[in-house]
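In this supplementary section we document a worked example of the pipeline. Step one takes a protein sequence of length 243 as its only input; no multiple sequence alignment statistics are reported here. Step two produces a three-dimensional model, which step three serialises into structure tokens for compact storage. The input and output of this example are shown verbatim.
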Amino acid sequence: MLPFWIALQFLSSLPVRLPGMPTPQQLGRSLLFYPLVGVLFGSLLMALNLLLEGAPQLLHAALLLAAWVLLSGGLHLDGLADSADAWLGGFGDRERTLTIMKDPRSGPIAVITLVIVLLLKFSAVLALIETHHSLGLLLAPVIGRAAMLGLFLNTPYVRAGGLGQALADHLPRTRGVQVLAITAAACVLIAGWAGICSVLIAGAGFFCLRRLMIQRLGGSTGDTAGAMLELLEVLVLVALALV
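The serialised model returned by step three reads:
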């Protein structure tokens, strides 16, 4: 189960302690457990949703969103902010885009992007609360993290060396495809029509975002992977709120 604990440590702010430095092979296998981390996140959010039953709905949605952000430690929001700055400031140039992504400072485009994404997520969560469709709180984190597995599975990693390269190089490909298939089937079995809509919409969003990464960078980075997760979570939530 060490790969699962590696995945949980990397994707969450939960206090996970590893027994030692993981090997590159263990890092690669940890990607297989990303959807399971999403299940854990979704289960915690659904449990909190039940505890907040009866609270004012605006406060209810705000607390759920705050818990969601805190669970991930804002890691993927940071990747979204960096990607937004780099995509606009890079002016279509690959090297300039990659350089801007390394800059820890956030420009106005990053701030605007975060505000829009969080506002959309808050509004969608509120809509799901009002219609009692709490399964969206499970589907979105599962699909978002499964998308990260899919991205590392079929997209070159453009920064040589580092953690991301180890993940990409040592990911068991056949097992990864199986995990994605099981995840998609589980979403459909658990949520029915909502699961089908979520998988199809997220799949379309995945391929559009992946195409943008290939066109601009020739592959993905850790920042663009985090940006994809955040955007697909929002896409799934908004779609479910509108269904």
